[in-house]
Automatic annotation (TrEMBL):
Residues 141-171 are annotated as: Disordered. Residues 174-383 form the Peptidase C1A papain C-terminal domain. It comes from Acrasis kona. Pfam families: Inhibitor_I29, Peptidase_C1. The lineage of its organism: Eukaryota, Discoba, Heterolobosea, Tetramitia, Eutetramitia. InterPro entries: Papain-like_cys_pep_sf, Pept_asp_AS, Pept_cys_AS, Pept_his_AS, Peptidase_C1A, Peptidase_C1A_C, Peptidase_C1A_papain-like, Prot_inhib_I29. This is Cathepsin H.
Length: 387
């Protein structure tokens, strides 16, 4: 009886804490939106014209050539209308539709603020401050809560696998650069939208790489099966553990995407499907040196902080302040290179799950050895078999 009482108290405390956390996050989001709306409202006429010019000439997005160019002869009303015209074109381009009653002023403010931030960043590239270029993309008018709903993933803390210090496969042991996506071990950029299922894409892709490298063909495994049957997570807000997903694939197996396709939504578990893979071993890394060793064996499922990643277009990300964000997103480490883009910086090559219209056709590069985005932990599958 006492044990049951303690268990009940623990559950109630957990629920109460989760409720407070959600309430706190909602309050923080509301404050952030209010701040952004105020900032946009108080932008000077010249600042607004700079944004319009950058949208028109393609400095921060694909050129909005149908947008009337802004000039110093425009009145404040003219400038405001051109910004709203730009947002309308953005909504059409990304096929965005919002329900009646949506706070479109907040959406508009988020869009304009993103344009302003991207414009400032890209001007910094010309000044030599950055080596990555940003753009205005589908995330430009999303709220902080919506961005979080596509992430909320982690890799559990566990000791490094002793096997992770073994030598990599001989043909890549001394490689100074490696990209598994060019060697037929990685499927093209996939799109989890709008679900928070990044952890399913990262974990299945690591196993797919293992199969391909062991010459058993490149298949696409079912992310939907993991989401529906084992974690029973709603599509949104999502969230899941890459570590647990990998262990489930190891212990229970998983079928193919062809048999159990991804539906971009929550589905009902189909537990009568047959597994097509058996994983013998999973190796772990807990720092970047170990990650370098692991990725020489195959694509690695990793977790990172995604907050500053949404606006990325191309180039090598080098901002070390990004390491201070909380870990919330799972992706696939596919390789590494030295002196990336002749910047003198070594980098990681990473595949995201935000579609091929994001980043470098679904990929991004980030400086290696600086723990940027908190990149340090990873899991790789070895000894895989088709069954």
């Amino acid at each position: 009886m006492r044990v049951l009482l303690v268990l009940l108290i623990t559950v109630l405390a957990t629920v109460a804490f989760a409720g407070r956390s959600r309430s706190s996050a909602a309050a923080q989001d509301a404050a952030t939106l209010a701040k952004i709306k105020s900032l946009v409202h108080n932008l000077s006429r010249s600042e607004k014209i700079e944004v319009i010019v950058s949208l028109f000439n393609g400095a921060i997005s694909e050129p909005m050539t149908t947008l009337p160019p802004a000039s110093n002869k425009d009145t404040n009303a003219d400038v405001d209308q051109k910004l709203r015209d730009a947002y309308h074109l953005f909504l059409i381009k990304y096929k965005k539709r919002y329900p009646e009653g949506e706070d479109m002023e907040a959406r508009f403010a988020l869009f304009v603020n993103t344009c302003r931030e991207v414009d400032q960043h890209n001007k910094g590239v010309l000044e030599g401050k950055h080596t990555s270029i940003q753009e205005v993309n589908k995330f430009a008018d999303m709220t902080p809560a919506e961005k979080r709903s596509m992430s909320a993933s982690s890799i559990d803390d566990e000791p490094s696998s002793s096997e992770s210090k073994q030598k990599p496969w001989n043909n890549h042991a001394n490689a100074t650069s490696l990209d598994w996506s060019l060697l037929g071990a990685v499927n093209p950029g996939l799109n989890q939208n709008p679900c928070g299922s990044c952890w399913t894409f990262a974990s299945t892709s690591a196993v797919e790489g293992c199969l391909a490298i062991s010459k058993q063909g490149l298949v696409q495994l079912s992310q939907q099966q993991l989401q529906d049957c084992y974690f029973k997570k709603n599509c949104k807000p999502g969230g899941g553990s890459v570590s647990k997903a990998m262990r489930i694939i190891q212990e229970q197996g998983v079928t193919t995407n062809q048999v159990y396709p991804y539906i971009h939504n929550t589905g009902k578990c189909r537990n009568n499907v047959k597994s097509v893979v058996k994983v013998g071993q999973i190796l772990r890394a807990n720092n970047e040196d170990e990650l370098l060793n692991l990725v020489k064996r195959g694509p690695v499922a990793i977790a990172l902080a995604s907050r500053d990643l949404h606006k990325y277009k191309k180039g090598v990300i080098t901002n070390t302040s990004f390491a201070k964000r909380p870990i919330d997103h799972a992706v696939l480490l596919v390789g590494f290179a030295n002196n990336c883009d002749n910047t003198g910086r070594d980098c990681w090559i990473v595949r995201n799950s935000w579609g091929e219209r994001w980043g470098e056709k679904g990929y991004f590069r980030v400086e290696r050895g600086k723990n940027i985005f908190g990149i340090s932990k990873g899991l790789v599958a070895v000894d895989c078999k088709r069954v």
